[in-house]
């Protein structure tokens, strides 16, 4: 059986990488596959070995730099090299899999090179687009044309840097075909799909309870309340719906982030739930009538699939991974910013269309399976395992020196 050492950028946080990583570990545990997960956490150093599964959780330090509400980068992560190296050598992996250029990904890539173990890398975050979006605070001081050119330059530079990092891997994974093609062109490595699955028992229309949702339509959003999620468009949707004479609605905003205060000022009827998990999150989805996801930068959009599994049609932008989930006119709509409120209004105003989309969205989501996702990942590992490397030759025998 393939022995995988996995270095995720995040694990306990609320984001797509963490969500996928937890399911990856669960898949290995359920299939009794030899699996090592090296991750960061807020707890003290903890090494746990249970049957086939080994986990090493290490704390980030006081020098950690916050990247978002619940995500940090620890520039002093190198202090953990001895314990990580010992653990990896004792585990004797056939492959090391990283999820991005975080402190864990950088160390995982270094270890793969140092030990002669094949490296796999999956792309989960459009870092280049995030960088361009978050640069607006100083680019907005420039004239419009120069600001747009500056954003494009920042995006291209960051993409080049990140692509050079991914070039270190022998095989790549991405959540949609567009990103796979981009990575193959920029990194020169084969790329395979690594999409996301869904727990269709947890996220289900059966959890819908309109009695607790009050009257009127509920327009939902779930995710980080940040500028790269384009959440400002929600306020525009409210204004444009009201201008069309549609006023019997309110927003349900699930999540947290820097833009929450701005949204609270402009969406006075909105329900801000904060971060929800498990059944509370599933009930929040099921009580929605339309799910709005205005992000242009998401690589997949777990939340879109969760909403659809809950029987909620979705409106998404034509950029990024979510557009690959929504069948335009059948399970929701794909609309640019200018037409987002128009698409939303079509669903709200046509009860037959809305109910048809609810059924179709659920049917589509039922086809998504975490088992199928990770079976594809292990299949893609196959060619790397016949590259002529052995654990003995690469120094991965327990006790080998580095």
Structural class, by secondary structure, is alpha/beta
Order of helices and strands: EHEEEEEHEHEHHHEHEEHEHEHEHEEHHH
Number of strands: 16
Contiguous runs where pLDDT drops below 50 for at least 5 residues: 388-395, 397-402
Q: Give the distance, in angstroms, between the N- and C-terminal Cα atoms.
A: 25 Å
Number of helices: 14
Average the pLDDT over all residues and give the rounded result: 88
Quick one: biggest sheet? 8 strands, mixed
Strand content: 15-25%
Question: How would you describe this structure to a colleague?
Answer:
- The protein has 402 residues and is α/β, with parallel strands linked by helices.
- The protein has two domains: 4-197 and 369-386, Glycogen Phosphorylase B (Rossmann fold); 205-365, 3-Layer(aba) Sandwich (Rossmann fold), CATH 3.40.50.
- Helix content is 40%, strand content 18%.
- It starts with a strand and ends in a 21-residue tail after the last helix.
- Mean pLDDT is 88; it is low at 388-395 and 397-402.
């Amino acid at each position: 059986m393939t022995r995988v050492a996995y270095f995720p950028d995040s694990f306990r946080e609320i984001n797509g990488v963490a969500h996928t990583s937890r399911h990856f570990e669960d898949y290995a545990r359920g299939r009794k596959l030899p699996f090592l997960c090296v991750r960061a956490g807020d707890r003290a150093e903890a090494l746990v070995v249970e049957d086939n599964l080994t986990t090493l959780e290490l704390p980030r330090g006081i020098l950690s730099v916050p990247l978002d509400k619940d995500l940090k980068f620890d520039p002093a992560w190198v202090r953990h090299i001895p314990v990580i190296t010992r653990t990896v050598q004792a585990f004797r992996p056939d492959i090391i899999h990283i999820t991005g250029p975080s402190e864990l990904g950088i160390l995982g890539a270094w270890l793969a090179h140092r030990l002669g173990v094949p490296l796999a890398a999956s792309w989960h975050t459009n870092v280049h687009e995030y960088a361009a979006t978050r640069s607006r605070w100083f680019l907005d001081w420039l004239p419009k044309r120069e600001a747009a050119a500056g954003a494009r330059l920042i995006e291209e530079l960051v993409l080049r840097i990140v692509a050079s990092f991914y070039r270190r891997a022998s095989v790549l994974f991405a959540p949609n075909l567009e990103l796979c093609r981009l990575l193959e062109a920029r990194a020169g490595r084969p790329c395979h799909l690594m999409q996301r699955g869904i727990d269709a028992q947890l996220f289900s229309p059966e959890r819908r309870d309109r009695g607790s949702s009050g009257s009127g339509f509920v327009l939902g959003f779930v995710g980080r309340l940040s500028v790269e999620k384009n959440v400002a468009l929600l306020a525009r949707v409210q204004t444009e719906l009201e201008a069309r004479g549609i006023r019997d609605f309110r927003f349900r905003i699930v999540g947290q982030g820097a833009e929450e205060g701005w949204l609270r000022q402009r969406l006075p009827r909105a329900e801000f739930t904060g971060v929800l998990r498990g059944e509370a999150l599933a009930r929040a989805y099921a009580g929605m009538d339309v799910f709005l996801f205005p992000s242009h930068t998401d690589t997949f959009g777990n939340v879109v699939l969760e909403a659809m599994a809950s029987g909620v049609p979705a409106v998404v932008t034509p950029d990024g991974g979510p557009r690959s989930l929504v069948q335009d006119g059948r399970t929701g709509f794909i609309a640019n910013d200018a037409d987002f409120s128009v698409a939303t209004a079509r669903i709200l105003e046509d009860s037959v269309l809305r109910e048809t989309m609810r059924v179709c969205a659920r049917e589509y989501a039922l086809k998504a399976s975490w088992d199928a996702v990770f079976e594809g990942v292990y299949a893609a590992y196959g060619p790397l395992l016949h590259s002529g490397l052995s654990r003995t030759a690469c120094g991965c025998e327990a006790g080998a020196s580095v």
